[in-house]
Amino acid sequence: MDQSKLRNVAIIAHVDHxxxxxxxxxxxxxxxxxxxxxxxxxxxxxIDLEKERGITIKSKNGSCTYGDYFINIIxxxxxxxxxxxxxRVLKMADGVLFLVxxxxxxxxxxxxxxxxxxxxxxxxVVVVNKIDKETARIEWVIDQVxxxxxxxxxxxxxLDFKIVYASAKNGWATDDYNVKTNNIxxxxxxxxxxxxAPKGDPNGPFQMLVSSIDHSAFMGRLAIGKITSxxxxxxxxxxxxTESFTSPAIRVSKLYKFERNKHIEIESASxxxxxxxxxxxxxxxxxxxxxxxxxxxxxxxxIDPPTISIRFLPxxxxxxxxxxxxxxxxxxxxxxxxxxxxxxxMQVEDDGLGFKVSGRGELHLSIFIEKLRREGYEFQxxxxxxxxxxxxxxxxxxxxxxxxxxxxxYIGKIIEAMGIRxxxxxNMQEDGPMTRLIYxxxxxxxxxxxxxxxxxxxxxxxxxxxxxxYGPYIxxxxxxxxxxxxxxxxxxxxAYALEGLEDRGVLILGSGVNVYEGQIIGKHSRDNDLxxxxxxxxxxxxxxxxxxxxxxxxxxxxxxTLEQCLSFITDDELIEFTPQSIRLRKMILNExxxxxxxKTN
Length: 601
Ligand SMILES: Nc1nc2c(ncn2[C@@H]2O[C@H](COP(=O)(O)OP(=O)(O)OP(=O)(O)O)[C@@H](O)[C@H]2O)c(=O)[nH]1
Ligand SMILES: [Mg+2]
Description:
By secondary structure, the chain is of the alpha+beta class. The protein contains 15 helices and 36 strands. Strand 11 and strand 12 (245-246) form a beta hairpin. The N and C termini lie far apart (69 Å). 44% of the residues are buried. The mean pLDDT is 91. The protein binds guanosine-5'-triphosphate (GTP) and magnesium ion (MG). Residues 13, 15-21, 42, 54-56, 77-79, 129-130, 132-133, 167-169 line the site of guanosine-5'-triphosphate. Guanosine-5'-triphosphate is lined by residues 13, 15-21, 42, 54-56, 77-79, 129-130, 132-133, 167-169.
């Protein structure tokens, strides 16, 4: 392929600023697209969980053609928990499209991803997206982007960035926001004119840094990266190497490039191209695939360390083994240890009691939990904990920067909630009916706040946070004020029994559900735990048979999401996950034993 006609561009932005939607349009309006082809919405969000949640979790490669140019596109996740991913895949890019929402302007993760692009000295094309929004404030957004780049000590060339204005959702872009168009030609032109062709010596020894790993049902692990030197062909002998390690040589069995969002088999590839290489069984991200006769590894990645961890345990609840396919400790262990092979931001350790799984944030771990459930695993987890460190002899904990945009009427609520969570306000800006609040807050404090935030602001607020730095431990933060209602015996819940419990608190399950002794069935309205009978039936009368439970009408019970459960439980509680159920329980199921245990501790 003609190196000068190649472009490798990564699309980066804060969460929801429209990256995947822009990629749809790039595919739709590129020359490689046949007219009759229909592209499904957010095509690159191909994982079920991505479709359901409307966010990108894993970065993905694709490509299109424009005139005689071949453009490789890397769609990246915008959520802070997946920032490690962005950092890695930027190594495949020769420039970035930096999208920013025309109303929101740069948000915490905009700063993070832009910082990574500037550090790699990548040219930046700024795309002010969503200019169709009524609340768009284009000039302000551009000033903000400029200030951001100045703050990052960007070079003069970078500060002289090209700007394109777009409405990805409506399929158009323009160089002049006063002139509406009906296509995204301005985006394509910016890519070919402002993002350079890849560099590298086509005749040098073969080198490709592995930036991500994909799985193919037939070929196993596929190592994806950009060729930075030389060429590769089927049947070549190559090794995977780092500065301290060289694998045995393998023969390249298959080679793929990306066409639209699909893998296409090819015979050979040369410098500048982004390809997937099959043949290595155990290859890892950060290793370099390089010629077997003259191996020259490239420097590997420095990935930000994990900030929170959760203990995974085999499921030992009385209902275990009824819904899942994989239940044993060994199956769980094997699966957990497999994850860090493709997600290097995740760490797994055996800790005697179970497995400590550490990641970049709540969402990173909760998405993993959901993934395991869907694969058929049963397991339990304990309360998420932040990872403390000792820095200069002092106990330290992770802090985040939180940006909150709310309608001014809810500020009081937010300030109160942030206070309880030990957040410190660093900035407050009023802008019309909205106010932007910026806080520095311990990660512990913000864990699980998203759901409450939605309630506090009646869904009218936007909050996002990203890891800032380790700082001094701030002391106890007590978030759960209430105790729980705990089932005293195993059985099926009855409406009759639950009705009697409604004034004790808020129930989290309904009638006709199998529960076990020690399972949590609701939140207590007071601060202590209360053991209750959730299964008792009505006394027999000669009018009605026992079991006809239907005359009772229960208030609909509270449905807790996975994330809400994670932030709800305390140290003596667990969450039990199966493919069908999420149950909360006391670690010690029997009330007597629980009491004895708490006395002796
Ligand atoms: N009004 C408007 N909405 C848009 C535009 N582009 C995207 N959206 C909407 O913004 C939301 C987020 O779009 P995505 O493309 O998923 O955003 P993303 O940047 O890929 O998000 P993550 O990958 O999760 O970081 C969707 O509801 C889109 O329909 C636009 O130009 N105008
Ligand atoms: Mg996306």
